[in-house]
Amino acid sequence: MTAREIRLYGDPVLRTPCAEIETIDEGVRALVQDLLDSVALPGRAGVAAPQIGVALRAFSYNIDGDIGYILNPRLVEVRGEPEPTGEGCLSVPGLWHDALRHPYARAEGIDLDGRPVVLEGEGLMAQMLQHETDHLDGVVYLQRLTKEERAKAMKAVRESDWF
């Protein structure tokens, strides 16, 4: 098992929009395995490639024991008014805040064989899809907080022992 170290807020890779995967080679296959191994650890709903230091459009997920991955995902549909949803992030350890998320989301991408993959759902699945695609666009969930919540969160980040 190769669970990779998670990059922490402040690392430039987390603020960098990720490149499309153009060729599925052994490097991409190894990346997917590392993402799957990294998300399989307890308490993890998703791990995006930049969180393990790779600026490519890929993430893994672990929702209710269903573990998988998607390459080149794009959020193609969200439904419902955004609502405050309790959220944390492996790259911002120890913090938990209400981020605005749509109650339904749908993402489309491909698998390692180039076949279409569709992931969709409500609740935790919708939240994970929005959170992980944000990572691929260089957005950390702290940017989805209200101005007041973000100020509190940034103070907690600055005072943390990991920052």
Task: Walk me through what this model shows.
The protein is an alpha+beta fold and 163 residues long. The protein has a domain at 12-80 and 102-140: Peptide deformylase (Peptide Deformylase, Alpha-Beta Complex). The chain is 25% helix and 29% strand. The chain has a 5-stranded antiparallel β-sheet with strand order 1-2-3-6-7. It has a two-stranded antiparallel sheet with strand order 4-5. A hairpin with a 5-residue loop joins strand 6 (104-110) and strand 7 (116-122). The longest helix has 14 residues, at 26-39.
Main structural class: alpha+beta
Order of helices and strands: HEEEEEEEHH
User: What ranges have pLDDT less than 50 throughout 5 or more consecutive residues?
Assistant: none
Mean pLDDT equals 96
Count of DSSP strands: 7
CATH homologous group name of the domain at 12-80 and 102-140:
Peptide deformylase
Major sheet attributes: 5 strands, antiparallel
The termini sit apart by 27 Å
CATH class identity of the domain at 12-80 and 102-140: Alpha Beta
Strand content: 25-35%
